[in-house]
Design goal:
Helix content is 51%, strand content 10%. The strands form two sheets. A six-stranded mixed sheet has the order 2-5-4-3-6-7, with helices on both faces. With 420 residues, it is an alpha/beta fold. Residues 240-320 form the HRDC domain. InterPro entries: 3'-5'_exonuclease_dom (IPR002562), Exo_C (IPR041605), HRDC-like_sf (IPR010997), HRDC_dom (IPR002121), HRDC_dom_sf (IPR044876), RNase_D-like (IPR051086), RNaseH-like_sf (IPR012337), RNaseH_sf (IPR036397). One of its GO terms (molecular function) is 3'-5' exonuclease activity. This is Ribonuclease D.
Length: 420
């Protein structure tokens, strides 16, 4: 740990400590008049020209209709740049923003919690080559609460109105108060970026943040999840293989209906209803209708489609029933290590303790210093000789950044050697 980092950890700034101060000033409207929503190709062409002529970083945000619509597509995109002002774009009317993405390709994009918005932005042609993630920056700087509203209050002294964060952004036309809320989300984002950059520089962590941002940009699009039905909430209550098959059949029917109707799957049938039906394995419509989630509002036709899914699971031969748990290429759950490999369990305990203690000294979350999955994989299959050079090679293979390697290799090499 460098002298600057030791000083920052020992004497955190008042901002990093989030001390109390004057009451924040409510931010009720953007500095400039509210922009019209860009919803056709002509308006989009004018916006592209304006942002091409702008200067400096560009603040970017996107609003989705999570919990209302199927998938995670963007229903509003907000931008702000010096010299161009704020823009609100309707991706329903303008589904291809690749022209805008190209003119901003060499510009630093400023997002809050970038990994949440980048997939839906990528789908409409907007992919950054450089970014600054204000949420991740706040975590590295040691802030315990890193939501956009809290950070704007803490570092800039303004209070953002957050009452529309969970609304249905697929609504058309979008109400004026929602649009104002969306515009304010990018109003101070670049100011917040500058304040966090200064704080990270003061703590000696700015290069760490830059490595993290570069890793986000370089990461490939996530692959589709294998057996996504296994993530049904409450799945742990389903024990028998035939019941697990019923969860799979019900989930797949629900997903097809949700996709066809463009609805959030939970609005078609709650996870709790899927689990209840799988546990009960009802044999007729009456028995199904008596279960939670299949009440009197559901028509007989709807009940029959769910019952048919349960019946398909009931008729499957034993050889086609899914296995409990999810096959994984990684190590087993840590709770089973003591029985499977007590020496590996000892390595994991020592490595976790070392990483956690060092993260506390650096005033940042343990998972940002080194992800728990990386620690688990290293401890489950450690180098034959746990030298610092071997641990360095292992961490690089696992995707750790150079700053993480520099901070953790001595600790991990010692933990692996002493717990062997």
């Amino acid at each position: 740990m460098t002298d600057a980092q030791q000083t920052a950890a020992a004497s955190p700034s008042t901002t990093a400590a989030q001390s109390t101060g004057p009451a924040p000033v409510p931010l009720l409207a953007p500095r400039e008049p509210m922009p019209a929503v860009t919803a056709d190709d002509t308006a989009l062409g004018e916006l592209v020209a304006a942002f091409t002529a702008g200067s400096g970083p560009v603040a970017v945000d996107a609003e989705r209709a999570s919990g209302y619509r199927y998938g995670q597509r963007a229903y509003l995109v907000q931008l702000r740049r010096a010299g161009a002002g704020t823009a609100l774009i309707d991706p329903v009317g303008c589904p291809d923003l690749s022209a805008l993405g190209r003119v901003l390709a060499g510009t630093e994009w400023v997002l809050h919690a970038a990994t949440q918005d980048l997939p839906c932005l990528r789908d409409i042609g907007m992919v950054p080559t450089r970014l600054f993630d204000t949420e991740l920056a706040a975590r590295l700087a040691g802030f315990s609460r890193v939501g956009l509203g809290v950070m704007v209050e803490t570092l800039l002294g303004y209070a953002l109105e957050k009452g529309h964060s969970a609304v249905d952004w697929s609504t058309r036309p979008l109400p004026e108060p929602w649009l104002r809320y969306a515009a304010l989300d990018v109003e101070l984002l670049i100011d917040l970026r500058d304040a966090l950059e200064r704080e990270l520089g003061r703590q000696g962590k700015l290069d760490w943040a830059r490595q993290e941002f570069a890793a986000i940009v370089a990461a490939p699009p996530p692959e589709p999840r294998k057996d996504p039905w296994r993530r049904t909430s409450g799945m742990h209550k389903v024990r028998r293989r035939r019941q697990i098959a019923a969860v799979r059949e019900l989930w797949q029917v629900r997903d097809e209906i949700a996709r066809r109707r463009d609805l959030s799957p939970g609005k078609v049938l709650p996870d709790a209803a899927i689990v209840a039906a799988a546990q009960a394995m009802p044999v007729d419509v009456r028995a199904l209708a008596g279960l939670p989630g299949f009440g009197h509002r559901m028509s007989r036709r709807q009940l029959m489609q769910w019952l048919s899914a349960v019946d398909r699971a009931r008729r499957l031969p034993e050889s086609e029933l899914p296995q409990p748990g999810q096959n994984s290429s990684g190590p087993p759950p840590p709770r089973s290590w003591a029985d499977k490999d007590p020496v590996a369990a000892a390595r994991l305990s020592a490595a976790r303790a070392a990483v956690t203690a060092h993260a506390e000294r650096l005033n940042l979350p343990q998972e940002n210093l080194l992800t728990p999955d990386t620690v688990r994989r290293l401890c489950w299959e450690p180098p034959a000789e746990p030298t610092e050079e071997a641990v360095t090679r292992a961490l690089r293979r696992l995707g750790a950044r150079e700053w993480q390697i520099e901070q953790t290799v001595p600790l991990l090499a010692h933990a692996l050697a002493t717990a062997a």
